[in-house]
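Reply to dn_fold:

You asked what the input looked like. This is it:
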Amino acid sequence: MNAVDTNILFYVHDPRDATKRVIAKKLIESMSDGVLLWQVACEYVAVSRKLEPFGYSSVHAWQYIRELQEVWDTLLPTWEVLERAEVLLQHYSLSSWDALIVAACIEAGVTRLYTEDFDDSVKAEGLEVVNPFATP
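and this is what came back:
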């Protein structure tokens, strides 16, 4: 299973970087085994407010989340996610929010997380982190 971080969803609708927009759209459209993490859905609705000057409203953001729910599984966190995130924070250089995303991925059996926010240091936990915008 694959999951995306909030920034990938954001770039799908951000007109300021055409290259990232195309890459993010192609990635989302190609993920037949995608997982929508609860935290990512919440963060996306919150950060999408930055797109209001470009005509993208909260109505659009909520609709996009509903569209993703139709094609991907949505995963809700458990208390174990919080406990695992605490351990991850002690072992890796992650923000609290990133540790929660990684913990949720591990709990759900996600094997690949697409993000531009952090490196693949958590691979030891069985999670591959891929920056889809990195130049090979």
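The CA atoms of residues 116 and 131 lie 5 Å apart.
Hope that clears it up.
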